[in-house]
Amino acid sequence: MRFKISPPQHGLIRALKSISAQDKGVVAVEFALILPFLLLILMGVIELSHGLQAKRKLLNAVQTASDLISQQTDITSTDLDSIYLAAHLTMNPLNTTGMTIGVASVRFDDATGTPTLDWADSSNGGTVVDPLIKADGRGEAGASIVIVTGHYTYRPLVRLIVPVDFTMTETSYVRPRKVSYVLKY
Fold first, then answer.
1. Residue ranges per domain, the chain?
2. What is the pLDDT of residues 100-141, one digit of tens each?
3. How many beta carbons lie within 10 A of that of residue 96, not counting itself?
4. pTM for the complete prediction?
5. Coil, strand or helix: which one is 160?
6. Residue 120 and residue 104 in contact, taking contact as beta carbons nearer than 8 Å
7. pLDDT confidence of 6, banded at 50, 70, 90?
8. CA 38 vs CA 26, 41, 44: distances in Å
9. Is the model's pLDDT at 90 over the cut of 70?
10. Alpha helices in the chain (DSSP H)
11. Can you name the residues that pair with 102 across neighbouring β-strands?
């Protein structure tokens, strides 16, 4: 009778093969390694969508203000305050403390068509930068144009993903609907 004596390395190889065959926890470990990156991407997509929503709402607010002003034949500071309120309400549910609105009415000279600033107003310190340059080429002699510029500071929800604030600017140009130019009293 012959006895086969196995060298000690055969037992070691068998033990290593049995360990490598057990992969029950591999998926859980891989998921744990990938999860932080997936959450980072998800939060980035959420921040991007909120930023785009803020930009779209700012454009809607500026267009709302310019449209409401263009429907008037004359306007007062009280009317403008109501229009600014409507623009701010357009931004809901976003916080509008970082929003400013500037309005400028530019009249084009009856004879030469040269633009001159008729009146300007603002909400929260907003301004229309260089209204005469912006109005150049946008109207003919005897007409006018209303320029509304809005600025909004977007503050990201999660500072870990996007650690800085973004200032967004939108400008709307409209002509008065009922008259050649809107008078301000």
1. 8-184
2. 999 999 999 999 999 999 999 999 999 999 999 999 989 899
3. 20
4. 0.80
5. coil
6. yes
7. low
8. 18, 5, 10
9. yes
10. 8-20, 26-70, 77-90, 131-135
11. 122, 149
